[in-house]
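Review form for a predicted model. The reviewer records the input and the model, then writes brief findings.
Reviewer: anonymous (R2)
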Amino acid sequence: MNIMKKRTTLAAVVLVSITALSCSTELTDNAAPVELVVTNTQNLSRLDLDPLTTDDECDETVGTINMQVIPKNENAIGEFVQVRVNRYRVSYRRIDGGTIVPPSFVRSIDTLIDVNETVPGSNFTVLQADALSQAPFAALQPQNGGRDPETGRPVVQMDVVLEVFGETLAGDNVYDSTAFPLEFCFNCGGCS
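Model under review:
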């Protein structure tokens, strides 16, 4: 009986492993002759969520995303190694001990990048407008206590993770990600 139980457990582990690997092919497909490299230049690290703030810096963008296609070897040239970036996903990771984050979201884009070309893209949304009225940000407003219930602090700190997906014109998947560490507060003296 123990042998049968061990075989069943082993089969279940193998099945879960195969399923996990098959679901992640988009991120691990290394057949592309080029790499998509995504970096950021951060302008703001603290966002004051108070809509009445008069700080001009709060009108700035959080940062700029740069996307570059670099060849894996000298043979990676031609039009079929151009990369068409077709979407990005934004997710969040708390770095202050809290666990509540805004829902992640996916947006479609359409950008064609040549090999050895760098394309700045500053029109990436990193926080949807309705997220400010939801957890964890809603708790920072004075009428809701002004503190994050998980950490007891008047500030929420998290990494905003931006993942960019595309494919070469030959159909090979490419992917990269970058993160912005941000601090969110309410009526805390403006953005910086």
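Findings: Strands lie at 34-42, 46-48, 63-71, 83-94, 105-113, 118-121, 155-168, 173-185.
Further findings: The two ends are 65 Å apart (CA to CA).
Recommendation: see findings above.
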